[in-house]
C-alpha cells in the first residue's frame, strides 16, 4: 500500500496485490484492506463529491485513487482527513499483520510526470 505525498499533503494511494493471509474468500487481511480503501474512495467521491481518477482491477487486487487537480480549499481539507483516517487504519493493521501488509509513503511531485499521469487513459472518473 502506497500513499502519494508531497509537502502539501496526500494526493492519493495505490493498493496492489492480495495479502495471502488465508485462502481467497477467507482472507481477513485482504478483506479489511479492501473495505478501508473502498470506503475511502466512497468518502472522496460520494461525500466530498470529487471526480477522483480511479483504477480498479479486482482479480489483481488493485485499487488506485488520485485526487483531481484544482480542488477548493475545503475539498482539499476534507480529502486530507479521509486519507489520514485510511492511513491510520492501515498502519494499525500493519502492526498486527506486518507479514501480510506494508504501508509506505512515496513522494508525489505535482509538477512532474508520474506513473498516474501516464496512465490517464486507464482511469475511470
Write up what this structure looks like:
This protein is an alpha+beta fold. 38% of the residues lie in helices and 21% in strands. Strands 3-4-2-1-5 form a 5-stranded mixed beta sheet, covered by helices on one side. Strand 1 and strand 2 form a beta hairpin. It is globular, with a radius of gyration of 14 Å. It starts with a strand and ends in a 7-residue tail after the last helix. 22% of the residues are buried. The C terminus is likely disordered.
Quote the beta fraction. Answer: 15-25%
* Main beta sheet: 5 strands, mixed
Please tally the helical runs, counting DSSP H or I stretches of 4 or more residues: 3
Widest sheet, order of strands? 3-4-2-1-5
Estimate the global geometry from the Cα principal axes: globular
Runs in which pLDDT lies below 50 for 5 or more consecutive residues are 113-125
Q: What is the CA–CA distance across the termini?
A: 21 Å
Instruction: Note the run of SSEs as H and E.
Output: EEHEEHEH
Radius of gyration: 14 Å
Helical content stands at 25-40%
Give the total of beta strands: 5
Question: Given the helix and strand composition, which structural class is it?
Answer: alpha+beta
Mean of residue pLDDT values: 85
Amino acid at each position: 500500500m502506497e500513499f502519494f505525498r508531497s509537502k502539501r499533503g496526500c494526493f492519493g494511494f495505490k493498493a496492489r496485490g492480495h495479502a495471502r493471509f488465508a485462502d481467497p474468500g477467507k482472507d481477513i487481511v485482504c478483506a479489511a484492506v479492501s473495505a478501508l480503501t473502498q470506503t475511502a474512495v466512497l468518502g472522496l467521491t460520494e461525500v466530498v463529491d470529487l471526480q477522483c481518477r480511479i483504477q480498479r482491477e479486482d482479480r489483481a487486487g488493485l485499487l488506485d485513487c488520485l485526487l483531481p487537480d484544482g480542488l477548493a480549499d475545503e475539498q482539499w481539507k476534507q480529502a486530507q482527513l479521509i486519507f489520514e483516517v485510511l492511513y491510520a487504519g492501515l498502519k494499525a493493521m500493519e502492526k498486527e499483520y506486518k507479514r501480510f501488509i506494508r504501508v509506505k509513503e512515496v513522494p508525489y511531485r505535482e509538477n512532474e510526470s508520474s506513473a498516474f499521469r501516464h496512465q490517464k487513459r486507464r482511469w475511470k472518473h
